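input
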Amino acid sequence: MRRPEQNIGGLLDGLRRLAEGLEQFSQQGEQKLDIGGREGRMVFGYSVRTADGKAEAFGHVPTRAAETPARQPIVDVIEEADAILVIAEMPGVALADITAEVEAGALVLDCTGATRWHKRIALPGPVRPESLTLAARNGIVEIRLARVPA
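output
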């Protein structure tokens, strides 16, 4: 059994690593977003899953300098008995501008409209790529993928 001071030490070590990562992010350069001729706000954060301890970035994630900055949508992955449902918040997108494909156990979501969106989402299990359905309404994108039968 771990002693309480070991738990606190691990927590503090994790916070230190997070702070170092954020410092590296800010050192890479803050990006100003041009939204219709005016400067916009930047959103950036981490989503941490407690089940497996994995952290995933979301928001306006920095990209290479040569690329146009891409936003990363906030995403929910919902496991159903026979399907996996992915819901992404992507305001201002048109269905015609969205592409979604399954690639090496992940869903790759792209939008090349007026606002560029990109996200690679790890899928919690095997799916049938040909079953992919995509719908978008009021800035909410829904992708449904049928599970591979066990």
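quick obs: The chain has a mean pLDDT of 76.
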